[in-house]
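Suppose a colleague, Dr. K., hands you the sequence of a protein chain of 686 amino acids and asks what its three-dimensional shape might be. Before reaching for any lab equipment, you can write down a predicted structure in token form. Begin with the sequence itself:
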Amino acid sequence: MNGQGDLDAVGNIPKPGEAEGDEIDMINDMSGVNDQDGGRMRRTHRRTAYQTQELENFYMENPHPTEEQRYELGQRLNMGVNQVKNWFQNKRNLEKINNDHLENVTLREEHDRLLATQDQLRSAMLRSLCNICGKATNCGDTEYEVQKLMAENANLEREIDQFNSRYLSHPKQRMVSTSEQAPSSSSNPGINATPVLDFSGGTRTSEKETSIFLNLAITALRELITLGEVDCPFWMIDPIVRSKGVSKIYEKYRSSFNNVTKPPGQIVEASRAKGLVPMTCVTLVKTLMDTGKWVNVFAPIVPVASTHKVLSTGSGGTKSGSLQQIQAEFQVISPLVPKRKVTFIRYCKEIRQGLWVVVDVTPTQNPTLLPYGCSKRLPSGLIIDDLSNGYSQVTWIEQAEYNESHIHQLYQPLIGYGIGLGAKRWLATLQRHCESLSTLSSTNLTEISPGLSAKGATEIVKLAQRMTLNYYRGITSPSVDKWQKIQVENVAQNMSFMIRKNVNEPGELTGIVLSASTSVWLPVNQHTLFAFISHLSFRHEWDILTNDTTMEETIQIQKAKRHGNIISLLKIVNNGMLVLQEIWNDASGAMVVYAPVETNSIELVKRGENSDSVKFLPSGFSIVPDGVNGSYHRGNTGGGCLLTFGLQILVGINPTAALIQGTVKSVETLMAHTIVKIKSALDLQT
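The predicted structure, expressed as tokens, is then:
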């Protein structure tokens, strides 16, 4: 068998740490495999080198032995029939995984080659000259497009003046949002002073300030297009280098766009990613320009967002030219990383038919040290090229300026390299969401499981979505939630506790809910750790719910196959308890979220009843690469990872009662014990 590098995210896996030649029979049956020694369950069987060699020799001749041949092999090699059968099953599975992996690598290389060729052709078009006059053809010329945008900006200013003179009592009266009346301000910034948008409250926006915002958006759009070019000189070839090389490139980049210098103590992160998205260009633009839909798609990253002001709704019945002020929070699923509060303007523009740009940028007045939890959004966004087949080619660029001292040392490399909130995570999250929409719309949901209606499958998907959202919020505590952080004496390092008091809220247990979370570093890669935690054969090694028994899967809904995104209804064998679970593993990270659910409630949901009243308390794991030594950029096959464990538990049915400190310490002990069991099972130092 191969080592850890050959592990599959959802298939049968060898126990990490086992050397080659010391192989293990894996149990494919989720309820366990009984050998011939009195029916007692055994998880592993070690074989001698002679047995392994004989099995390999027979496999070369016949990978599918008959029952009689398996019996003869077992007699000859002193092995049980089930041992021989399991060995051949695992061998075939491993060979299939390896073949699929090689095919996937080949296809990715071919895909990257085609993308490079396409980018070369596009660059050649940008530099092409007319054969007759020798002048530039302006085929896709970004400068030409920006000039058109500037002309439209001037037209918009004239329309604003006409609107004010026609409908407002005074031409200098300020415009405010149609959705929210901003408080009056005694300050009167000049035309050249771009207002700083306060996250805690809105500012009034005059017609001149609107024009300033539009000019800023057009400048940011021009910058984004330049950064999206294949041969853009501002991107480093080696993403591992971070100190001297980054500062030189940063200064060169900033001087090119005549921007202000970042203040001391601030860190700038920048990343770029490109990929195919199974969504049309127009649909994607509409999603991005609707904050409700935007939050729904990017829920693991954006827990809350709102459109503070709509400065322009676009022209010609499309979103082209739309300009908005948005307030949002960005999150990394860990108690060690504070939420990133951002206020920015978002502008979208159709450059040509089928080519759109959506750009974000934070307007600021002067370079100042950002307060705790806040950051500046440098020109970031998407260049979207419609491929006319239901897919879009997306180039995603993320840039941010923030104070690194607010972030725990464990997560500084992850954030600084543009991984935690970088372009690759945004793009992978979008791809997973779009693929799940495509899968669920094309799958015959009535064929998923006997007794499960199509409406029931839809409700289970909705219930799993609510479960994962509650799991995120129990760790990061968005500003709109009721979680309150509590201080506990002599608490373990990197452990966080919050409480929420529920009183007759739909879908919530009444009483005091305690949320505990912690993040630790483990010397194992993301795929290996995810495979261990998500595989039912190893569940009893860390999950207290199983109590040394097994779990079996009763329902499986595959949302996004390429991302390993699966929703399952699990059943604990010895007591019949049902557990709802959702998992995925991709470039955005890995997630395993689960919650026990009441049997009668879930049976109603399976028949199509509304799932909003189902009550649960989620727990789970979030896994990301540690960002050290370039492990993330090598595809998570090396280096370590950061594991976040979150747990919610009802500690009292009276929401007005005081929290007992001893209960908190018991939960802390349970969390620490689970982490120790995971380390022990993976043969890691505790």
